[in-house]
Amino acid sequence: MELTTLWFFIVGAMLIGYFVLDGFDFGVGMSLPFLGRDDRDRRLIINTIGPVWDLNETWLIVAGASLFAAFPEWYATMFSGFYLALLVILVALILRGVSFEYRHQGKGREWTRWFDQFIFWGSVVPPLLWGVAFANLAQGLPIAPMENGGWIYQGTLLTLLNPYGLLGGLTMLLITFAHGLVFISLKTAGDMRVRARSLATKVGAAAIIAGATFLGWTIMQHTDSPTLWVIVLCSAVAALALIGGWAANLVGREGWAFTGNAIAIAFALLAIFMAMFPNLMASSIDPSYSMSIVGAASSQKTLELMTWVAVFTLPLVLAYQAWTYWIFRKRLTREAIPVGAH
């Protein structure tokens, strides 16, 4: 396998890792107004991801840095074209992160309420807009080559808000919401566990409908793609995993439900990456304008150096993250949270 293709899949794997891990963080944040009957409940919900949310978010930074180094033309075109959407995502992530750290400062009920709102909206906006962005990458975008090299995005933010893109955003939103609810039921005991599992059943059913529609639409758009059979296979695995996760949650097997949702997210994103392949950005203006993997890649020397760095560092990062999850594997209870604490 050529290094350009290898790094396409490495960047894709990092992004998949981000959405699987930070995906349940988003879902936990979305659950606050639905499961948090009082401040004690809300603190219990937040504590389920307290030790890991910032570690999960670093995968986005690693993926962005790898994308910049391996495919600078892709990075430049995508970030300039999606500038406003990415700015909104960044602001939402900052507000969410700040809120986790500051809501417990004990400045009063109104202070806490505002930061809870920031956590909720900071968890809703990113998966919605990420879903819109990736759906548009799979569908194709109005890009064209520039005279002095590179590509330029010729659309606007409204160009991204097409029916297929919005369905992609809704699908990502629902799947991450269900993913987070299952994680809460996996990490808590008592009444919170029961209520989270019940809500996960309802949200999961909606996610199955949206996901099946989105993946079916994706397949129909790429019937002439050389990777069609891979897209179909990945979509089928994602659908079966999502249904299996929903069924496991229904009978109280939270571990299997969480695994099913994680597999569903991973293979749904893999289907999108295969819909893009062998391009990074397909042009909806003229297929000849599309940005190929080879045409947007860095030099061979750069990719070789990055490969050696990845070989030595990624196993260490994965081992550390696995160790962190093992240390904080214990279930949490409402009774363990002091009433007067913040």
TrEMBL record:
UniProt entry keywords in alphabetical sequence: Cell membrane, Electron transport, Heme, Iron, Membrane, Metal-binding, Transmembrane, Transmembrane helix, Transport
Keyword Membrane: yes
Transmembrane segments: 6-32, 74-98, 118-144, 164-186, 198-220, 226-251, 263-285, 305-328
Signal peptide: none
Name of protein: Cytochrome d ubiquinol oxidase subunit II
Organism of derivation: Leucobacter alluvii
Lineage summary: Bacteria, Bacillati, Actinomycetota, Actinomycetes, Micrococcales
InterPro entries given in the database record: Cyt-d_oxidase_su2
Record's subcellular location: Cell membrane
Protein's gene: cydB
UniProt keyword annotation of Mitochondrion present: no
Membrane topology: Multi-pass membrane protein
Protein family according to the UniProt entry: Belongs to the cytochrome ubiquinol oxidase subunit 2 family.
Top-level taxon in the UniProt lineage: Bacteria
PANTHER family, per database record: CYTOCHROME BD-I UBIQUINOL OXIDASE SUBUNIT 2, CYTOCHROME BD2 SUBUNIT II
Coiled coil: none
